[in-house]
Design a protein that fits this description.
single chain; globular; TIM Barrel; alpha/beta; oxidoreductase; two-stranded antiparallel sheet
């Protein structure tokens, strides 16, 4: 399924008027965490290809790099591209003075927003997420400052990432939350119990990051075999040797269904996310145009209720081995130095 044959439909994200493409593009791996940063010209070409193909919802964060991914996006948005996209970025993980912490105090919120605007070289951020919740600061205080930024025209819509159901409710009472970003895929389904129903009750859009299980649902164990030494995924519990063989069997069963349907496993896994509802937007990341083309082919894959049930029985929460977040107990100290900042992001 080539990109040229796929029509990328648009959906409403949340209840405040934001409209995005039904599938977005996660930009983290272009600059951080998934091995060495990729070349700016290649990544700008990929971003321009995505926009030209109809995928206009772009996702970044000030922590990716840190800062270098936003700078990359700023370059890619030149020449009239900015007017064609819906741009999301995030704040909340600070690296000031060699210290790493989660911050949601008003002064930091404002400073982070101003810095992102400067790096992106834009006047207004379409969707601004709190990347992680600062439990030392009442969420009402953080959202209060974000509300001011909306009123000042520096951001259009407010989002939360990896927030609990109760935090989402409290935040939404101060100012409407447009979107909640969370990890949701065939093998990361813990959000289905409380967070997804809460978002739907409140009319909040759902943005699914890592919808391909950080690449595992695309190629299975081959992913782990080819990771570079500075790719943090090698430390994820699900990719460790004690869990990998079991999880590979799950991938093999997903792959069998994909072959039966005449699509790739990544298209099947993305289609499963799309079939969760029109309020859900997956944002698979990639650094290759060929993979991007394959990913948007998922929009053309139709699943029957029986196929959905079969997929869910294979990849139920009880069947997947290992947690979804980073485990540092197995990582050597040298690797932790290389991957500085990931504790805050993934624990």
């Amino acid at each position: 399924m080539a990109a040229s044959t796929t029509t990328v439909r648009r959906i409403k994200l949340g209840s405040q008027g934001l409209e995005v493409t039904a599938q977005g593009l996660g930009c983290m791996g272009m600059s951080a965490f998934y091995g060495p940063p990729k070349s700016d010209p290649d990544m700008i070409a990929l971003i321009h290809h995505a926009v030209g193909s109809g995928v206009t919802f772009l996702d970044t964060s000030d922590v990716y790099g840190p800062h270098t991914n936003e700078i990359l996006l700023g370059k890619a948005l030149k020449g009239g591209v900015r007017q064609k996209v819906e741009l999301a970025t995030k704040f909340g993980i600070s690296f000031a003075d060699g210290k790493r912490e989660i911050r949601g105090d008003p002064a930091y919120v404002r400073a982070a927003c101003e810095a992102s605007l400067k790096r992106l070289d834009i006047d207004c951020i379409d969707l601004y997420y709190q990347h992680r919740i600062d439990t030392r600061v009442p969420i009402e205080v953080t959202i209060g400052e974000l509300k001011k930024l909306v009123e000042e025209g520096k951001i259009k819509y407010i989002g939360l990432s990896e927030a609990s159901a109760s935090t989402i409710r409290r935040a939404h009472a101060v100012h409407p939350i447009t979107a909640v970003q969370l990890e949701w895929s065939l093998w990361s389904r813990d959000v289905e119990a409380e967070i997804i129903p809460t978002c739907r009750e409140l009319g909040i859009g759902i943005v699914a990051y890592s919808p391909l299980g950080r690449g595992f649902l695309s190629v299975g164990s081959k992913l782990v075999e080819n990771l570079s030494k500075d790719d943090f995924r090698q430390y994820l519990p699900r990719f460790r040797p004690e869990n990998l063989a079991h999880n590979t069997k799950l991938f093999d069963r997903v792959n069998e269904i994909a072959q039966r349907k005449g699509c790739t496993p990544s298209q099947l896994a993305l289609a499963w996310v799309h079939h969760q509802g029109d309020d859900v937007c997956p944002i698979p990341g990639t650094t290759k145009i060929e993979n991007f083309n394959q990913n948007i082919g998922a929009l053309s894959v139709k699943l029957t209720p029986e196929e959905m049930a079969e997929l869910e029985s294979i990849a139920s929460a009880d069947n997947v081995k290992g947690g979804r977040t980073l485990s540092f107990c197995n990582a050597p100290f040298a690797a932790l130095d290389q991957l500085d900042g990931l504790r805050s992001l993934y624990l």
